[in-house]
Amino acid sequence: MNQTVVSFLSQYEFFDHLTNIFGANSLLLTILIFVTFSVVFVAVAATIGGLGTYAERKISADIQMRMGPNRVGPYGLLQFLADGVKMMMKEDIMPRTADKFLFYLAPLMCLLGVFATLAVLPVSSGFTLTDLNVGVFYLIAISSLVGVGVFLGGYASNSKWSMLGGMRGASQIISYEIPVTLSVLAITLLSGSMSFGKITDLQAGFITNWFIFHNPFAFLAFIVYFVGAMAETNRAPFDLPEAESELVSGYHTEYTGMRFGFFALAEYIEVFVVSAVAAALFLGGYNLPFHISIDFLPIQFVQLSILVGKALMLYYVVIWARWTFPRLRVDHLMSVCWKYLTPIAIFNLVGCAVWMVAFKGQSLAQLIFGH
Amino acid sequence: MFLNTLFVMSALLTVVCAVLVLTTKNIMHSCVFLLGSLIGIAGLYATLGADFVAVTQVMVYVGGVVILMLFAVMLTGGKDFISKAQNLMGLAPTMGNTWTYAVAGLVGLVFLLTNIQLLSRLGTMSKLKNDGAFESTVNKIGHLLVKDHVLSFEISSVLLLGALVGAAIIARPRKQ
Amino acid sequence: MISLASYLVISMILFVVGLMVMIARKNIVAILLGIELVLNAAALNFVAYSKFVTNNLDGHIFALFIIVVAAAEAAVGLAIVIRFFQLKETIHIDEATQLRN
Amino acid sequence: MEYSIGNIAPIFLCPFFAFVINAFFGKKLPRQGDWLAVLAIFISFIFSLRIFLDFAGSTFATDYYIHKVFNWFDLSAGGQTFKVDMGIYIDNMGAIMLLMVTGVATLIHLFSTWYMHDDPRYGRFFVYVSLFTSAMLGLVLSDNLLSVFIFWELMGFCSYSLIGFYYEKEKAGDASLKAFMTTRVGDVFFLLGIVAIWQLVGSVNFVDIYAAIAEGKFVGQQVLGISLATFAGFCVFMGTIGKSAQFPLQVWLPDAMMGPTPCSALIHAATMVAAGVYLSLRTYPLMVAGELTQFIALIGAITAFGAATIALVQTDLKAVLAFSTISQLGYMVMGVGVGSYNAAFMHLITHAVFKACLFLSAGSIIHSVHEQEMPKLGGLRKKLPYTFIAMMCCTLAIAGVPFFAGFVSKDRILGDALFWGVFAGQSKIWAIVPILGFAGAFLTAFYMFRMMFLTFFGKPRDHHIYDHCHEEHISFNSNVPLLILTVFTLGFWYCGTLTGQSFGKVFGSKTEWFKILVEAPRVERFVGRTREPFSAVDTRVKAELPKAVYEHQTGYVGPAAGDEHGIHKAHLIGAIASIFIAFGGIFLAFLMYIKGSVKPLADTFSGWTTALKNRYYFDDFYVGVVIQKGMIPFNRFLAWFDMGVYDRFAIDGWAKVNRVAFRASRWFDDVVVDAIGVDGTGVAVNLFNLVLRIVQSGKIQFYFVVLILTLASYIWTINL
Amino acid sequence: MNGLLSMILWAPILGMLAVLVIPKGNDNATRWTALVSTAITFALTLVLYANFDQSIPGVQLTETLPWISQFHIFYKLGIDGISLPMTLLNGLLFFLCIMSSWTVEKNLKGYFALLLMLQSTVFGVFFSLDFFLFYVYWEVMLIPMFFLIGVWGGENREYAAVKFFLYTFFGSIVMLVGIIALYYATGKGVDSFDIIAMHGGKFTDMTVHIFGTDFSFERLFFWTMFLGFAIKVPVFPFHTWLPHAHVQAPTAVSVILAGVLLKMGTYGFLRFSFPIFPAASVEYSTIIGVLGLISVIYGALCAMAQDDIKKLIAYSSVSHMGFVMMGMAAMNTQGMNGAVLQMFNHGTSTAMMFLLIGVLYERSHHRWIVRPDGTKGFGGLYTQMPKYSIIFIIGMFASMGLPGLSGFISEALIFLGIYPKFTTMTVLALIGLLLGAAYLLWAFKRMFFGEVNDEVKEYDDMNLREVAYMVPLCICVVVFGIFPSPILNIMKASVGQLVDLLSKY
After folding, report:
1. Do the chains contact at B171 and C63, CB–CB below 8 Å?
2. Which residue of C has its CA nearest to B22?
3. Residue E65 distance to chain D (closest CA, Å)
4. The domain C4-95 is classified under which CATH number: 1.10.287.3510, 3.30.300.30, 3.40.50.2300, 3.40.190.10?
5. CA dist list (Å): A336 to A170, A234, A239, A244, A342
6. Looking at this predicted complex, what is its ipTM?
7. What mean pLDDT is reported for chain C?
8. Do A133 and B136 touch (CB under 8 A)?
């Protein structure tokens, strides 16, 4: 059982060298590995988030038949670094009437909520930081900290735009958490586990084992999840909390410099996380669409790239949707959630449960083609 | 060791945040501290091996606290501005004054003493027996919920439904 | 080092603080915060006892139910607060005196 | 030949599926699905032909039959057993019957595509007709009385629908209701007979019934004071009376012409009325065992003669044919009664052929001139030559002119009746049967030619109608079916000789094939007969079975049975007499309606004519007296009694009595119990409430502090 | 599957609560809720059918919970081959009734809530294995019926409702005497209200001392039970509430009344009277048979005189239930099975007829075949409403027992059953069969044939919804007319057991 990356690494010979150095069962070693991997994860995630801004601009340019960033680095690839540097160099302004404590706290909370989810993200069969038994649940729970951050950011700025944006953000995130959770619950039902590792393992093998193809309800659940997740990450067409044309910039209107950067970074990383979770839950995670049985370290990197590839594909869809659909109205946003997505999600959940009972857990493909 | 570290951190977070909840005069700060306190409790649960409960705690309260904050913001207005500024109504400020704190402190003290009296008998209680790896509680809790405790489970679902519907009905603006 | 007593003490502190919040504050929302603290103190006790004393998971179940009840209570409580605010334009607890006499 | 279920079931299932498909999707199919119905019945015909050729081809075997059974439902449980089997039974008679039904029905279907073409409910007609035919085929295939009954009733339903086909007409409704209810009277008896037989035999399978008769199970069985065999036989025969329109339940058949003409052809020839006679033939041993043959013969004779007399005065083309059907059915039933088993069956077949042809011809006329009152027609010979040929041949056949089919079959029935009534040595009173038979034959020849002469000969009486009539041309669905049927009105098809007697052989060694194949069931052969399940394939080689040979076998069982010489003599006399009678009738008709030298009967016997025109007042009696004067007033009285007297006084009266008691107790309740007892308590409680109200301050935190302090004090108290 | 019966029993109650929760004015939501509720219930009854073991003669899928333990009263449910067909029928008919009640306007919410409550109570009657529980359901069932007739009925509804209520209530009070007597007779033990424990003729030798004389326990209380059930069936002298109730009741309630509630009476005989008092039952079987016969003929004759089509069908119910009584009186395999099958088949075919009349009534707002002034109420419906007519024909012929449709098999089995025992009565009963065809066809002729009336010209043919709820019944009627085995196989083991018991006396 590779519950954590440490226990995974302990299978390999080089780990013995490490234990020789640090002593067996050393807490220090464990913490060291964790810290190393965490730092790598956060760094990679931050890079992906940064690249996300680049991707956004490039893809939108493509859709709008423009060039997009092309000056900094090859194809403008280093644009995000330039942006980052610019942000850090900027003056850190705080409004006079702002609630200081909360103003500081808010962006950090956002970032905390996002980074905390990385702990359970199943990037490969071995490199997952920890494979919690309640992984899915944990991810949903901890990522709602982002909502708190958004709301506090809006409140603390003591500005009308921010306040409205924060209120919208909070209500939107809390509302859309329900269909998302219910859809995820459907997968939990199908897999019988909340551990990302187990869910992913169950989807190993041929492409028909992916939960999205397990039954019609699961397919619907994927759509509900994806739409809900887009709303939860405040992505267009659900980007009401930061609607430029209405609220200037929403909850982060008053933020500048790196604090604003934190918000932006959190958003882009969250989109990636959400896509990766969708890939892990519905699209087979780090599994290839066919069965392979290789058991050595490089396969971890293959798996890593598969998951990231799937996630990036969904990432592309998210950006695509942003530049395709117009923004929703506030009441439409709420009615989409409560009148459509939530009932559909409940229907899916019940449907999945009935399916599991009625067909003894077999997937559609198994029913049609046999085992 | 790891557990102890986690315990100390969580306990500190819990207690400090709880006290801050009591002392701060700003309802929003109060809410944020409550959030900290509750997350600390989740950490304590984790040290007790209650992974499911811990995550549930985070899940429910993070969202719940935001709601509380929303309400706090929405409802901090109306007559309160006037009463805060001029104390026209002769009532204590909403976040309390010396008098209310005095009563609260008195009662708290009495209760604290009472509790200490009770706790003093627990000195012989065992220490944590096995601080090795925890087993997952998810499956067991699942089985317990739908077997031994199915009635309470169902009742709680009805309760939640009732609360949902009731809240919606109570809060609905009524047309005169 | 970690014993039942450590949890109980934390729980006790939480409880007393919650109690004091409930009594000292006149803001209904703040009172609800106090109630949350008190309920969590109780839940913590349950989980701790289940770990140290009974060695089964019934305490966890209880904690879960407490969370459920707290959620329901908060929902209804806040609904009442809203209603109250609509009627009185304040959430000062001492304004809630309609049942007197 | 091998018989699996797969090559028998299509006979029934093809029309049935055509019915199902047409019923649901008929309107969406091209041509409203008529081709489907025709195709289905044609496939049935092919399968039937295959069976017929096997049964009637090469050697004849006496014991050749197909009997397949399956369990319909089984109620055996605990210590009880009860199961119902269904099955298919085809013997020589069944094979011939199948061929006749499918063949005639195919032609009628084909004709209908022309006749009904302009009808707004064209598609629905074929729905009904398919079901009708499939029900008849199911009946023929049945191996037991219960399934016979089921298909029997289904046919009743179909005839109900077809007679009421033009439901805009009030009269169609009356006629269909009458047809269904009249036959239903017989059916109910039939069901009773089934139940009675079941009680004794434990099954209503034909084979079981025959075996039970052979084993003497019926001997000494009594029910309601009469012999069980008589009782059951009578009940079953009542079914025949109803379905085959015998006296006294003949009233429905003439009215049945309210339906479209092809459906009349179907009812009168191939399906419905034939079913009645077919049933009486199947249950013939039971009739014999129940000593009902004289009764049956009498019924048949009365019907044959009575209907013929009524036919004399009818002016409606179809009405004449309808009464002639009743009359001919009377001959068949008479044949059953006098033991002329195979002749009765032969007459069933020949009659089916020529009556179908007659009705189709009538249909052709009606379709061409839109008129069916004979006095308005006349001289149609030139306009409708093919119809004329067909109708003429059929008329010759039905009149009993030599060389035609009717002569062969009817002559044999009459010969047997003559022997039975006169030479067999039973009471002379039974001579009434052959006398009525011969008289009827005379009248038949007369009224049929009256119809022919009025319709086709002479001058057109109504030029308007005549001029509107189109010239007839050969067309595959208008007059080809008639001509095909016409071919089979010739006698030699049935008796194998041109003359109907023993000389002029056509079929060589198979002369009298009909007589050899069809014989009254010899019950002793059926004891212990095996039957096979549906799934089995019958592979018996026919050549190995006992060979059937010609012998003068009738079902006759009366005194002097086996008097070969006497029978022969009677037949000779009968043949000669019927030839004379037929020509006599024709000649009389010729004199009356062509020459005009004899005044029509109506002028001479006007009193009789009125009675005949009113059909001996049977309809008036049934409808006017029994139902209108008897049933309905009685029912109304009963209904009035039920609601107006019994319910109002007995039931509601009881309620009124109670109401008085209730009033008294209410007074007690209101005054004593409620006012003093209950309200008093309420006042007392209110007083107490005043005190409690003071303690409630309304401040929640106050309550809370009190609560906590109380709790703490408790704990301290307990600790101390 | 454990708890299946309870699920079926309480599912309509949940539906009722759901209907009650929906605020007034949301008509469509109310309808759909009720429909979904009944659909689920029906699906559950099908699950029950799938879980039913047809080879077991006794009760199965039993559930026992203590209810009032001081008096040894249990919440005991179970099902056997006699009650399962009724359960299926109940599930199906309520589902269709909700569909047919789509056009109800008046206080929709209450209507559907009461209907669902009625369904639950009817299930309760068929499931109960505890006499006390049975009695509770038997009585509670009257409440929704009372309101359904009394509030949503025709012009004379109060009278009909009160009559129905009081009449049946009277019968059940008398039955209660019998129940109490049985309770004491079994001896206040653990099983003192247990129906199954009472089965098997345990009271044959007992006597009871009343008014200073000794009566045979079995004979005396057979009659008290008899009265309760006979009123419900209803057999001849107790039948007069039925036409009133039917004529005044709204369509759906008529359907339920004829389709399911009447069966409760005959079910009562099969479940209670016969197995508990076998000796008396055999002794008095002639009386049951004769009453059945009188019902058959009397009902048919009265039906023929009716000018109100609904009243006509109501009397035809009396007639058809008479057949059931006769079949039961035969006390042999054919008769009993025929009776139970007739209960089922009558349920489907009469439900069809009442639903059809409801369809017509929605268009015409009257039900006269012939108006009191002698003019035709309808005429030419065949031309105007062809779909309707065809379904009417199917229903009508099924009702009169045309072979190939369901009514025939049960009637034929009943005749096969009664013939050995009551030959003369068989002959007379066949007259009933004949009359059955007569009154239906006569009414059909007067309503459907002929020229189209001016009034009739404005009627639309059946719409999709109406066809939708007729089709299942048509399928039932046709399929069970050709393949009766599915229903017969359910019941035959249980019926066989009962016949075995009765044949010992």
Report:
1. no
2. C21
3. 31
4. 1.10.287.3510
5. 16, 14, 14, 21, 8
6. 0.57
7. 81
8. yes
